[in-house]
């Protein structure tokens, strides 16, 4: 069923994005018919995300999308505690109510899903009951026992991410790696069609790495220095037990010219590394750049303050206010420890890709967070 999706959801990209040449359908395509509103609500590892999209009445044939609203609530669901579960339930309910009341979206046009990262971490921690309890509590709260809440697996999410993020002209030459909060998933289409997908997956994500490092801290030593030591041990374990094998067996060498990373950490790293490219949704980077950033996050975190990063822009640059706002948003979403964890995981993966795929180009996709959930909506509409 999923292979029927056509990867035409290019709404998150602008017309020119350096050498990657991603396109932005919401700017280039004016909807011909009266729009219909659809919402996708995802329970992720870190919290709950809402994407509201405008879809032309002809969506089943041309998939013209425009992002209307994209927001999230941080609840740390994968800590699997009663407080985090309650916060997640409230976040899910509030975003559902927001979609129905503020945007008047009918229940049938709202899709609710649980991400693969949550499923992976719940299986790892033997906490699947937290997912089941959340779904049941949500149904009771909205008084709808038939409400469908899909728990997406890594293969579904990775394929949908590729279809929702990568444009058609890069479809079969791009290896996509989406670093989530609870896991990492991605892959590519090896046979020139969207039916056959080669999955790349790790049971580690930004939040799960940070949580694992925190759990290793001794009660008498919760310093940043000790966190850094424990983080390196967690990352080394992930590298030796999963990352090296996953990259080596990925099979992307012959067909993938581009290695693209998406997810919240990709957005934050792109913003902190190249604030001057604020208006570029896709930023090309090198392994050395990201390695240097990872080291400075620990040794000189103050360097990433908005005031210092603004020095990369000219004093009369009209985007200074926008850049400052975006940097502040990064630092609100990710604290120093979370940035160290996510960037450390990115470095471990890039190191392996770099050593094998020396001629490949790395890219960071800033706006990939709405990719798979929007493709999920598209797939559902196509198959109605």
Write structural notes for this entry:
The chain has 384 residues and is an alpha/beta fold. It folds into two domains: 31-151, 2-Layer Sandwich (Nucleotidyltransferase, domain 5); 157-368, Nucleotidyltransferase, domain 5 (2-Layer Sandwich). Helices cover 45% and strands 17% of the residues. The protein has 14 helices and eleven strands. It has helices spanning 25-28, 59-62, 82-101, 116-125, 128-141, 154-165, 206-215, 224-248, 264-273, 287-299, 306-309, 320-333, 336-356, 371-382; strands at 36-43, 47-55, 65-74, 110-114, 149-151, 174-179, 184-188, 198-202, 258-262, 282-285, 361-365. A six-stranded mixed sheet has the order 8-7-6-9-11-10, with helices on both faces. It has a five-stranded mixed sheet with strand order 3-2-1-4-5, sandwiched between helices. A hairpin with a 3-residue loop joins strand 1 and strand 2 (47-55). Helix 7 (206-215) crosses helix 8 (224-248). The N and C termini lie close together (11 Å).
Tell how many strands the DSSP assignment holds.
Answer: 11
Could you tell me the mean pLDDT? 84
* Beta content: 15-25%
Order of SSEs: HEEHEHEHHEHEEEHHEHEHHHHEH
Side by side, the strands of the main sheet go: 8-7-6-9-11-10
Major beta sheet summary: 6 strands, mixed
- Classified by CATH, the class of the largest domain is Alpha Beta
Radius of gyration over C-alpha positions, nearest whole angstrom: 20 Å
User: For the terminal residues, how far apart are their CA atoms?
Assistant: 11 Å
**Rough shape?**
globular
State the share of residues found in helices, binned by percent.
40-55%
CATH homology superfamily name of the largest domain? Exopolyphosphatase. Domain 2
Indicate how many domains the architecture comprises: 2
CATH architecture of the largest domain: 2-Layer Sandwich
**At the third CATH level, what is the topology name of the largest domain?**
Nucleotidyltransferase, domain 5
Stretches where pLDDT falls below 50 for ≥5 residues? 1-35, 57-64
Coarse structural class = alpha/beta
Number of helices: 14
């Amino acid at each position: 069923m999923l292979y029927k999706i056509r990867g035409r959801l290019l709404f998150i990209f602008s017309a020119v994005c350096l050498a990657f040449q991603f396109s932005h359908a919401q700017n280039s395509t004016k909807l011909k018919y009266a729009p219909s509103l659809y919402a996708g609500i995802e329970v992720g590892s870190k919290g709950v995300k809402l994407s509201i999209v405008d879809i032309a009445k002809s969506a089943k044939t041309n998939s013209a999308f425009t992002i209307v609203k994209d927001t999230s609530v941080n609840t740390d669901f994968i800590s699997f505690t009663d407080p985090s579960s309650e916060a997640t339930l409230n976040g899910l309910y509030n975003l559902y109510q927001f979609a129905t009341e503020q945007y008047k979206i009918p229940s049938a046009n709202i899709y609710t899903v649980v991400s693969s990262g949550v499923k992976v971490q719940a299986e790892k921690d033997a906490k699947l009951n937290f997912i089941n309890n959340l779904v049941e509590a949500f149904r009771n709260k909205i008084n709808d026992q038939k409400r469908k809440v899909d728990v997406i697996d890594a293969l579904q999410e990775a394929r949908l991410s590729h279809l929702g993020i990568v444009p058609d002209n890069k479809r079969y030459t791009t290896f996509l790696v989406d670093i989530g909060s609870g896991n990492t998933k991605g892959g590519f289409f090896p046979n020139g069609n969207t039916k056959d997908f080669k999955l790349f997956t790790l049971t580690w994500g930004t939040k799960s790495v940070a949580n694992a490092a925190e759990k290793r801290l001794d009660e008498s030593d919760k310093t940043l220095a000790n966190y850094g030591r424990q983080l390196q041990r967690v990352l080394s374990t992930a590298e030796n037990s999963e990352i090296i094998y996953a990259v080596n067996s990925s099979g992307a060498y012959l067909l993938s010219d581009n290695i693209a990373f998406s997810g919240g950490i990709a957005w934050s790293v792109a913003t902190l590394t190249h604030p001057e490219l604020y208006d570029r949704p896709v930023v090309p980077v090198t392994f050395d750049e990201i390695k240097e950033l990872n080291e400075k996050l620990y040794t000189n975190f103050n360097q990433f303050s908005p005031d210092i990063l603004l020095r990369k822009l000219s004093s009369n640059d009209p985007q200074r206010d926008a850049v400052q706002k975006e940097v502040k948003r990064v630092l609100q979403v990710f604290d120093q420890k979370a940035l160290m964890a996510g960037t450390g995981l990115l470095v471990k993966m890039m190191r392996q890709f770099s050593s094998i795929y020396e001629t490949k180009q790395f890219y960071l996709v800033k706006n990939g967070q709405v990719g798979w959930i929007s493709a999920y909506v598209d797939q559902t509409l196509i198959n109605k």
